């Protein structure tokens, strides 16, 4: 789509029924008036990073987004709220997390939004599903996402 931007969202959750919530996120963005197309990666299970709690379920959603980065962030935050996300402490267990990973080749660092996501290249649970969707994807300022995967192979991630 000529007026759309290729964006990637990271989905995660480890409380309740994250698989069902992922289905709702995919359906929401498939029907969203600013989304011109969506594809979800395979889903993975991973141990929490820098936290305790049950294993996480993770995937990446690719979206052709017709709005700007802020409108995508607002759509993600509103959906998390609708699906029962309550923000407590950083890295706390949660039913759903919808993170903006990439917005085309944009880079920005504001109080509300940092793209590319600042830790995405350090997390196998992000890189594996992202590369499953697009093996040639680049992280602005960091190059090909695939070159960062070997440094994360010590993090256990399993296909569901």
Automatic annotation (TrEMBL):
Physiological role: Catalyzes the transfer of pyrophosphate from adenosine triphosphate (ATP) to 6-hydroxymethyl-7,8-dihydropterin, an enzymatic step in folate biosynthesis pathway.
GO biological process, one term: folic acid biosynthetic process
Source species, domain of life: Bacteria
Species of origin: Limnobacter thiooxidans
SUPFAM superfamilies linked: 6-hydroxymethyl-7,8-dihydropterin pyrophosphokinase, HPPK
Keywords: ATP-binding, Folate biosynthesis, Kinase, Nucleotide-binding, Transferase
EC number: 2.7.6.3
GO molecular function: 2-amino-4-hydroxy-6-hydroxymethyldihydropteridine diphosphokinase activity; ATP binding; kinase activity
Pathway terms, separated by semicolons: Cofactor biosynthesis; tetrahydrofolate biosynthesis; 2-amino-4-hydroxy-6-hydroxymethyl-7,8-dihydropteridine diphosphate from 7,8-dihydroneopterin triphosphate: step 4/4
Residue ranges occupied by any 7,8-dihydro-6-hydroxymethylpterin-pyrophosphokinase domain in the UniProt entry: 90-101
Pfam families recorded: HPPK
Enzyme class, UniProt record, top EC level: transferase
Coiled-coil stretches noted in the UniProt entry, renumbered to this chain: none
Listed name of the protein: 2-amino-4-hydroxy-6-hydroxymethyldihydropteridine pyrophosphokinase
InterPro entries: Hppk, Hppk_sf
UniProt similarity note: Belongs to the HPPK family.
